[in-house]
Automatic annotation (TrEMBL), chain A:
Catalyzed reaction equations: N(6)-(pyridoxal phosphate)-L-lysyl-[4-amino-5-hydroxymethyl-2-methylpyrimidine phosphate synthase] + L-histidyl-[4-amino-5-hydroxymethyl-2-methylpyrimidine phosphate synthase] + 2 Fe(3+) + 4 H2O = L-lysyl-[4-amino-5-hydroxymethyl-2-methylpyrimidine phosphate synthase] + (2S)-2-amino-5-hydroxy-4-oxopentanoyl-[4-amino-5-hydroxymethyl-2-methylpyrimidine phosphate synthase] + 4-amino-2-methyl-5-(phosphooxymethyl)pyrimidine + 3-oxopropanoate + 2 Fe(2+) + 2 H(+)
InterPro entries: NMT1/THI5, SsuA/THI5
Family the UniProt entry places it in: Belongs to the NMT1/THI5 family.
Biochemical pathway: Cofactor biosynthesis; thiamine diphosphate biosynthesis
Assembly information from the UniProt record: Homodimer.
Keyword NAD set for record: no
The protein's name: Thiamine pyrimidine synthase
Range of residues in the leader sequence: 1-18
Function: Responsible for the formation of the pyrimidine heterocycle in the thiamine biosynthesis pathway. Catalyzes the formation of hydroxymethylpyrimidine phosphate (HMP-P) from histidine and pyridoxal phosphate (PLP). The protein uses PLP and the active site histidine to form HMP-P, generating an inactive enzyme. The enzyme can only undergo a single turnover, which suggests it is a suicide enzyme.
Species: Cellulomonas humilata
PROSITE patterns: PROKAR_LIPOPROTEIN (PS51257)
Keyword annotations of the record: Iron, Metal-binding, Pyridoxal phosphate, Signal, Thiamine biosynthesis, Transferase
Domain SsuA/THI5-like as annotated: residue spans: 58-281
Transmembrane regions: none
TrEMBL record, chain B:
Keyword flag Cell cycle: no
Transmembrane regions listed in the UniProt entry: 30-47, 105-126, 138-162, 174-194, 228-249, 278-302
Protein name: NitT/TauT family transport system permease protein
Protein's organism: Cellulomonas humilata
Region described as Disordered: spans on this chain: 1-21
Localization terms from the record: Cell membrane
PANTHER family assigned to the protein according to its UniProt record, in alphabetical order: ABC TRANSPORTER PERMEASE PROTEIN MJ0413-RELATED, ALKANE SULFONATE ABC TRANSPORTER-RELATED, MEMBRANE SUBUNIT
Amino acid sequence: MRLTRRTAWGAAAVGVTAALVLSGCSSDDGGSDEPAASESAGGELTPVKLQLQWFTQAQFAGYYAAVDQGYYEEEGLDVEIVEGGTDIVPQSVLADGSVDYAIAWVPKALASREQGAGITDVAQIFQRSGTLQVSFADKGITSAADLAGKTVGNWGYGNEFELFAGMSKAGLDPATDVTLVQQQFDMNAFLAGDIDAAQAMTYNEYAQLLEAENPETGELYTADDFTAVNWNDEGTAMLQDAIWANSEKLADDEAYQETTVKFIKASLKGWIYARDNPEEARDIVVAQGSQLGNSHQLWQMNEINKLVWPSPEGIGWIDEDAWNQTVDIALETKNDQGATVITAEPDADAYTNEYVEKALAELKDEGVDVSGEDFEPIEVTLEAGGN
Amino acid sequence: MTDLATTLAPERTAPVPVGPRERSTAGRRILVGVLAVLLLAALWELVKVVVPDAGGYIGEASVLPRTDDLAMPHVWDVVDRVLQPETSATGSPTVLSAMLSACWFTLRVALAGWLVGSIGGLLLAALMQRWQLAESALVPWVVLSQTVPLIALAPLVVGWGGRIHIGTFEWQRWMSVALIASYLAFFPVTIGALRGFQSPPAAQVELFRAQAASWNRTMLSLRLPASVPYLLPALRLGAATAVVGAIVAEVSTGTKGGIGRLIISYAQSASGDPAKPWAAIIAAALLGLVAAALVSLLGLGLGRYRYAEVR
């Protein structure tokens, strides 16, 4: 009996220790990663959740700046920004009602719409596409036509349609005229020479190249070492980051309609802040706990600004021509599996300028520059590893 | 009554004295562990020296990975990177402290998941032991559950969790991660516990029956003690899988704060700072070992039941 009791005490001690460790889990900051946004304001704030496509980074600086600068609060909104993950589809999260707004690329969102997600583009933040096809300068690839006979990387998963449209437009058959390679999300295969022309976002992978060491010189690569095919120039760009809202609630929920205008207005103000204060905006993003390097984030901020500004009709305005170009490519371009993004024209609910128009009018009344006609990007020097 | 299990089994009355034997060799085991790590590091460097930078090819097919500094940074570069600050931002913590706090976060989430999974697994095993029908009905499902890919499950769990509001209780993202971890952890515990519960020989079970012992009494005094040698390794395995589950779920659901998320964040600088992602990968591997070791501590108090542990 004595033995048994001692055994029981031993087990109990281990159990209590485990319980203590676990209770530490629930009591302190470990569990909650939501920024406490709403403590300061006096009045009732409307809670709003925004779903991002990816982790915190300068790509979403405008929204973080709007939280940090209190723009949402001024509009009576308590905005919680929900980060994305590798398997989080913002359009689905929005459609099932878990969040109020989501950031998503237009073609991907159109594909989700066709599968039944009731969502509407209410503000087109990025006016240009940030996707490039990058090569080493000595390969002489400066246009889509030069890709003939080369090894061409792409990420797949719906990121490949600008490339395929560009090649088709240049008279190439993607199936026979190039060797297609599935690309990882780092640039190692390109740097090692396995890929002649690799897909890269101006604000991310392209920067990674400039942060890598050239083994021949021992210095970092420079922009002169590379050439890039830009789909905006090739005429096959597709619209990217946009604010999407829930179509159903837009149709019959007046409070949601009002919130939408307010949310767009404050978000646009955040983007305007990021345009005028790129370094402060970068600091706001870094303070949100992004582990990406400091110079990388500033580069990203600057490149994102180039995608947003200038916005001739005002930031967030959905340009009909750019929209139609996106839809046409989504309908007609086949990828290597023979699939198109969508199979039928999207219905009238797919986008509306109604809310962004109101938001822009209010901002103009306040004397804010919403088009950024004289926007000048800054010079960013990347450090090794983006640190 | 409590001691019946051991008195009934004369061939087992002289259990192998697990405790002292382990103590005497503990020092050597640590030494062997350290040596193994050093050996691995040496092997890594050897591969870097022997295999050409471009990797090994047979014809067109690549059979060995690239070994240049971008793909396989030197061990000392990784160690050095760990001690450097994470980024050039002022006040940036070192990679080591960032990883330690991330591991601490993941460990707690994984432990929560392990606890839920283990309790669930034990209950399920008890149910299956109690009713033969339950066993034949449930075992295929338990096995099947492990073939569902985690990445398919993760968004669903987050989706359900996002809509749970009970009173002031609100579902947090880390709970989804813990739930996914528990989903992996429950499997070995269920199977291990069931085998353990069924392990007492017929003679012992029949003696209990002859004395009209209730199912509860048989469970507490015979089956539960007898299951310890099966249960401990299962719990250890469960802890390791819980860590794996937590890491994968973090990446998948975009939960901030843990080591899984850190791996992805660091991987974004893989081309310019290749040592950084490797540091996080090593930290994640070590975390699994730490979790399993923590669970082995449970065995310290149960030495008396560990006469024939299935290792």
